[in-house]
Amino acid sequence: MKNLFTIGEMAKLHNMTMKTLRYYDEIGLLEPIKIDESNGYRYYSTEQFEQLNTIQYLKKLGFSLKEIKRHLDHRDINGFLELLEKQKRLTEQKIKELERVNRRFQKRINDIKFTQEIIELEVVKIIEIKERKIVRLVEKIHSEPELEVSLRQLENLANLNSSIFIGGVGLTVDVNDLINRKFNKYNSIFILTEEEDIEGPLVTTFQKGTYASIYYRGDHNNSFQYYQILLDYIRKNDLQIVGDAIERTIIDHYISKSKEDYLTEIQIQVTY
User: Fold this and answer.
1) Which residues contact residue 123 at a Cβ distance below 8 angstroms, ignoring those fewer than 6 apart?
2) 69 and 23 Cβ atoms separated by less than 8 Å
3) Whole-angstrom Cα Rg for the chain
4) Which domains are assigned to the chain?
């Protein structure tokens, strides 16, 4: 059986490209055992199969080519153990991040499924809510363009990735404006970050407690009349407003073309 293989044969045997083998040769990671001086053909031997298998194996584990070359050049058991332990730590970090991303997906799935199950709309409910961790930017917001700019500012200041917080964004109305029934502006924008390891000056919470809540089909542009309904209910039931109103559009035009699917919730913390 022959013991020399052309670069094409070597690539085919190991399910890889000749371009990759040429690059390995350039960086000194896997050099041909023989080069024909007359035509420049590269040849590899069966003795190099295991070396290439090791390179492929370590690449799949996530090691860089530089780290693989360093190991192959020195080849000592302690160095290899250190390499594996380092990669294990990195893998554990990736697993934690993927678990966090998976929880975000599940939370969003639960949000959307919940909206499909809501029967009572435009009806005030008194509910108990646990403390919620948020990142909040206190800033006057009068329009949709200002909302979008403020959201980008909040994400940048808190070093957040917008793609992971779809559905977790909301606005607040100042308690004094609520009492005076002025709903033409918001006083802050926030992002729910309950499961995130986020710290910083913008991190705060919504207090746990009793909230008057209402759901309606629509977005922020339709909120005025539902604030009126909430406040009328609070007045008729002798409740006291504790803090700013919380308004969050859960389903909007970015998720569904049908306005019948839009869903927004307004919450106002109250005491008896």
Assistant:
1) 214, 215
2) no
3) 30
4) 4-75 (1.10.1660.10), 118-271 (3.20.80.10)
Q: What is the DSSP letter of 271?
A: E
* Tokens representing residue 158 in the block: 């808190």
Tens of pLDDT, residues 132-174: 999 999 999 998 899 889 988 988 887 776 545 556 889 999 9
Strand, coil or helix: 43:
strand
What confidence score (pLDDT) does residue 73 get?
87
Q: What is the pLDDT of residues 132-143, one digit of tens each?
A: 999 999 999 998
Quickly tell me which residue has 């949000």 as its tokens.
Answer: 111
- Positions of E strands within 74-131: 125-129
Dihedral of the alpha carbons of 118, 122, 123, 128, in degrees to the nearest 10: 60
CA dihedral angle for residue 87, residue 92, residue 97, residue 103, rounded to 10 degrees: 150
What are 158-164's contacts with CB under 8 Å, separation 24+?
A: 158/191, 158/198, 158/200, 158/202, 158/203, 159/200, 160/135, 160/191, 160/193, 160/198, 164/101, 164/104
Pick out the chain residues at pLDDT < 70: 1, 161-167, 194-197
Nearest to 261 by CA among 147, 118, 148: 118
Q: Where are the beta strands (DSSP E) in 203-239?
A: 203-206, 209-216
